[in-house]
Amino acid sequence: MREKFLSVLLLAGAGLLAPVQMLWAQAVIGPTDAATPTPAATTGTFGPAGRESERSIGEWLMRMHEASRKRAYVGTFVVTSEANLASARIWHVCDGDQQMERVDTLTGPPRSTFRRNDQVVTFLPDAKIARVEKRESLGLFPNLLNATDSSIPEFYAARQVGNDRVAGFEADIVQLKPKDQMRYGYRIWSEKKSGLVIKLQTLDLDGRVLEQAAFSELQLDAPVRMDKLVQMMSKTAGYKTEKLEVMPTTAAAEGWSLKAPIAGFKSMSCLKRPVAAGGVQPGTIQWIFSDGLASVSLFLEAFDTQRHVREGLVSMGATQSLTQRLNDWWLTAVGEVPPQTLKAFVLALERKK
User: Fold this and answer.
1) What are phi and psi of 196, to 5 degrees?
2) What are phi and psi of 7, to 5 degrees?
3) Which domains, and CATH codes, for the chain?
């Protein structure tokens, strides 16, 4: 069950915790980052008087989002949850609309992932395999979200709760509190001058920390050269190249629907894998939902008595995975949401053909 969870986790990361999922799975998808969204409406209660205290939730999130797109940086990123720890070295550079990243895992099996916009190459040096794929977003921290969504203020309230220093940088601390029981809360450290997210905590419904992700060391406006990263990304000589393909589709075309919407979560995309990849079988459908911060992926594949032997819930940090048989189908629901949210999706899912 755990190995299956890790395989699926690599494919499901459209929300706030996508980078956390990546590091756990590699220890290691959602709206594109090409569009410039409009800030959401004002909501929430804020802290002391001043410009920071006047910002709406949309303005806070937009500021963080834009900083992640426009700043070059190099840093060491660490994710902790209970007794688990994963870390990676991150290089990020941008040139106009061009975004380029390199992520090297520092824990677990060695792995280097390069992303140039939606093109992704992952090098597995032990196996001498280079996996080439196209993703809407790799979701690397601190790319907090890919688009602010007008429904976010309906389901989250924001307030500034203080100031702190992280990795040598002064930061504003902003807390996002859910307005219902269907999503987790977040505490975010945003670098004062730029807005870049440098630390993130995911909070359960009682306000306890489920997971923490932070830069332990960070160099802003680092001299990262995009041409050098592009050159490294293309060096696949000596590696067996595996091309992982997905085909866009719709849930309706595949015969699936929800009997009722899940509050705040909107369908973002639906993908189908024509061939097996990363433990996911050919023909597997991935239906992705997001509330603008958290995401849920529903993976649907034909039921196999040899492989699908155990239903149940698995937790990894703030991420939950729920597996269940649905007649001739096997469902794996994954998301950085409370278990009851995944159960609501399972109960609402129905086969139309």
Assistant:
1) -60, 135
2) -65, -45
3) 16-241 (2.50.20.10), 245-351 (3.30.200.100)
CA atoms within 13 A on the CB side of 274: 7
Q: Within its chain, how far is the Cα of 162 from the centroid?
A: 26
Helices (H), 101-216: 152-155
Whether the Cβ atoms of residue 112 and residue 2 lie closer than 8 Å to each other = no
Contact 188, 321 (CB under 8 A): no
**DSSP assignment of 73-131:** EEEEEEEEETTEEEEEEEEEEEETTEEEEEEEESSSS--EEEEETTEEEEEETTTTEEE
Contact 236, 121 (CB under 8 A): yes
Burial class (CB in 10 A: 0-12, 13-18, 19+), 219: middle
Contact 179, 151 (CB under 8 A): no
Which residue, chain included where needed, has tokens 């941008």? Answer: 94
What tokens does 30 get?
């959602």
Identify any residues that bridge with 312 across adjacent strands, giving them in sequence order: 323
196: closest CA among 89, 78, 65? 65
Pairing of strands 240-244, 129-134: parallel
What are the pLDDT digits (tens) for 210-254? 999 999 999 999 999 999 999 999 999 999 999 888 889 999 999
Q: Answer whether 331's CB lies under 8 Å from 341's CB.
A: no
Cα atoms found within 13 Å of the Cα of residue 179, Cβ hemisphere only? 14
Phi-psi region of 16 (alpha: psi -120 to 50; beta: other; left: phi over 0): alpha
What's the rounded mean pLDDT across residues 77-88?
90
Q: What is the DSSP letter of 186?
A: E
**What is the rounded CA–CA span in Å between residue 266 and residue 182?**
14
DSSP conformational letter for 280? B
Question: Which of the two residues, 29 and 134, has the higher pLDDT score?
Answer: 134
Give the tokens for residue 156.
Answer: 């989250």
Cα-flanking dihedrals φ and ψ of residue 347, to 5°? -65, -30
